[in-house]
Amino acid sequence: MRIGLLTDGGYPYATGESRLWCDRLVRGLPQHEFDLFALSRSAHQEDQGWVRLPHQVSRVRTAPLWTPEDGTLRGSGERGLLARLVTGGEQSYGRRDRRRFTEHFTALATAICTSDEAGTEAGTGPGAELFAEGLYGLAELARERGGLHLALRSETTVRILEAASRAHGTGRTVQSATVPDHLALAAELERALRPLSLDWYDQESLGAVDLCHAASGGAAALPGLLAKRFFGVPLLVTEHGVPLRAHFLAASDTPYGASVRALLAGFHGRLATEVYRQAALVIPGNTHVRRWQQRCGADPAKQRTVYPGMAAERFGPVGEDAERLGAAGEDDGPGGPGTLVWVGRIEPAKDLIALLHAFAEVRRAEPAARLRVFGAPAESEEATTYLAHCKALAAQLFPDEATGAHTEGVSPVTFEEIGGPEIPDLAEAYGAGGVIVLSSVVEGFPVSLVEAMFCGRATVSTDVGAVVEVIGGTGLVVPPRNPKALADACIALLRDPERRARLGAAARARALELFTVEQNLAAFRGIYLELMSHTPVRREADTVDAHGDPLPFATPPEARLLGHWTQPGSHLRPAADPDGSGRPDAGADAGADAVAAAAPSWAAAPGGRLPDRPGEPEPQHTREPEPEGVCAVAAGPAGDGDA
Q1: Which residues contact 27 (CB under 8 A, 6 or more apart)?
Q2: CA 129, 249, 14 angle in degrees (round to 5)?
Q3: Which residues, 6 or more positions from 364, have their beta carbon under 8 angstroms from its beta carbon?
Q4: Contacting residues for 340 by C-beta, under 8 A, at least 6 apart
Q5: d(Cα 4, Cα 7) in Å, to the nearest integer?
Q6: C-alpha angle 366/370/375, rounded to 5°?
Q7: Would you call the peptide bond into 12 cis, given omega within 30 degrees of 0 as the criterion?
Q8: Cα atoms in the Cβ-side hemisphere of radius 13 Å centred on 195
Q9: Enclosing H/E stretch for 28
């Protein structure tokens, strides 16, 4: 089948989130053809280029979600087809189009500014209907007339936002918004709604795919919503994190006031609800994400939990050595049983400050213990500042220790980067110690924890995100921001080598069972087939050529099996007989004629089969029709468990 893979700030670019996961998915399903529809997040990301794409990728369409310094919108450079934004040039709307824009944006703004009544289930209140009406109305206007970019930055937009924020039923925070707040909100909404103006919505782009697979919610899922709206293409949404939760966490770092943050939260909440409502299936990466999706209106019956697959082979040698040494009752390798290891990206959310204070307690109980911190190179000013602060605290808590009067002191805490001569790769970092520590206060899916499990290492983690779900009883879990509890758990494992080896072996077995690339690919292979079995593609563009003539073998044989999935839609069914004359009305005749004209010439033959030889008459025998729904009964209901 032909999959439209929708990404936001990731694949096929060399940098960004979900890049590795998407690449493994595309390469691991060579039987499918993939069209990539990618949104970029910055000029720097585009300058880094693309990863090498496999042969399964037939084409790539890209578009930016960022605005250059000159303020103009343009499509990003692309190999193949040009991706560009359809803005309608610099022409403004006429009176009729302005009226349409005002009507649709007013509905959208009203839904953003007002909250549903207490007890209203997400996606069922009047706010959700208003949001959908406004969103799809703006999309249709952009598709027909263009110019949405200019309209969203116009004075009309600001006036609509101002009126909606002061309407009856809005909260006090929303009502306190000022004109600068509305200007900032209009700019953010224009950027968020930019996918509505793309030139991807035609029969040769998203209209030509069998399935849209959004690699995340939010902006990446917007093209999938429109593909379903315009062409009936089913939408599949995968989320390893929750965009709405990420927006809440990042809101405090923005320069906007409380009113703008509240309005943006309203927009992202409504968008998430609409995405989950329209998706055929919603795939959370863990139970933590699954609960967030249900709070935003996701139907539990449409959810399938699929853990992200990771390459276990790169950690195989370290894990096998750990199992061998543990079985022999020996120590934990070159790092020694008294070494704690932390691996990750150094940032405030990882709470290395608490880890250093916890290690001070560990040193008082175990004077020979060491702590090795392996961090990726700092990429931002915040990360550089935080790393300097951690090093200063470590120097204060652990002065250099000298073994003699004329020897140089050595600190029990070291900060190292992976890739040096001593630690050339990630697997060696995990193998450098006996216990792996995770001290985060915010965590989604703990990748470093899974990597430690592949290496057969015992772990001590804080209870955040999906940590408990990933560990599953194969490691120790303590409350976050509690250095004393973290220290006690580390001391318990450092003093008990048998328990440490037992937990490490159990962790490796659990990781190999649940978190490999193979299990991830097997799950999505089944999900794709399940969606296609319930959502057959019946588009005229796929069955006729440029002249309107039928393409041979364009319709699969199973499409002719009787069942509810093969019944024509309401727009193709003949109208009811209104006057009892035995024939439908004129409108129905026209629709029937149009369908008959589009059908192959041999379709009118009895039984729908071709003559045995050209020129020979069709046999007159007929076949008893099979009862409707036989195949549906044989297939049985779709499974509702987690993959």
Answers
A1: 54, 56
A2: 95
A3: none
A4: 359, 362, 369, 370, 371, 372, 433, 434, 435, 436, 437, 490, 494
A5: 10
A6: 145
A7: yes
A8: 24
A9: helix 19-28
Instruction: Supply the pLDDT for residue 82.
Output: 33
Q: Which residue has the tokens 């003539």?
A: 549
- pLDDT by residue (tens digit) across 37-71? 999 988 888 888 899 999 999 999 999 988 754 34
CA 291/CA 294 separation, integer angstroms: 5
Helical segments of 48-178, H only: 95-113, 126-145, 148-152, 155-165, 172-175
Task: Classify the C-alpha dihedral 524-633-278-244 as positive or negative.
Answer: negative
Residue 255 is given by DSSP the state: S
Report pTM. 0.76
Would you state the structure tokens that stand for residue 615, as one six-digit string? 């020129």
C-alpha span between 391 and 403 (Å, rounded): 22
Q: Which helix (H) or strand (E) holds 6?
A: strand 2-8
Other beta carbons within 10 angstroms of residue 609's beta carbon come to 13
Q: Please state, in angstroms and rounded to a whole number, the distance separating the CA atoms of residues 514 and 265.
A: 34
C-alpha radius of gyration, the chain, whole number: 29
| C-beta of residue 172 within 8 angstroms of C-beta of residue 193 | no
Q: Hey, what are 482's tokens?
A: 């509690």
Closest CA to 350 of 267, 447, 430, 420: 447
**In contact, 372 and 433? CB cutoff 8 Å:** yes
Q: How far is Cα 214 from Cα 358, in angstroms, rounded to an integer?
A: 41
Question: Helix, strand or coil for residue 34?
Answer: strand
Using pLDDT thresholds of 50, 70 and 90, give the confidence band for residue 15: confident
Q: Are 233 and 209 spatial neighbours (Cβ–Cβ below 8 Å)?
A: yes
In sequence order, which residues have a C-beta less than 8 Å from that of residue 193 and are 6 or more positions away?
138, 148, 152, 222
For 353-434, strand residue ranges (E) read 370-375, 413-417
Quote the crossing angle between the two packed helices 95-113 and 258-278, to the nearest 10°. 100
354 vs 363: CA distance, rounded Å: 14
Q: Identify the three-state secondary structure at position 326.
A: helix
The pLDDT tens digits of the residues spanning 171-201 come to 889 999 999 999 999 999 999 999 999 999 9
* Contacts made by residues 605-612, CB under 8 angstroms, sequence distance 24+: 608/560
Four-point Cα dihedral 284, 289, 292, 297, nearest 10: 0
How many whole angstroms separate alpha carbon 572 and alpha carbon 592? 8
Residue 115 one-letter amino acid: S
Q: What token pair was written down for 380?
A: 């931002």
Coil, strand, or helix at residue 524? helix
Query: H-helix or E-strand containing 26?
Result: helix 19-28
End-to-end CA distance of the chain: 21
Nearest to 298 by CA among 312, 286, 313, 280: 280
Residue 587: Cβ within 10 Å count: 10
CA 234 to chain centre: 16
Angle between helix 222-231 and 258-278 (nearest 10):
40
pLDDT for res 423: 73
Asked whether 111 and 270 are in contact (CB, 8 A), the reply is yes
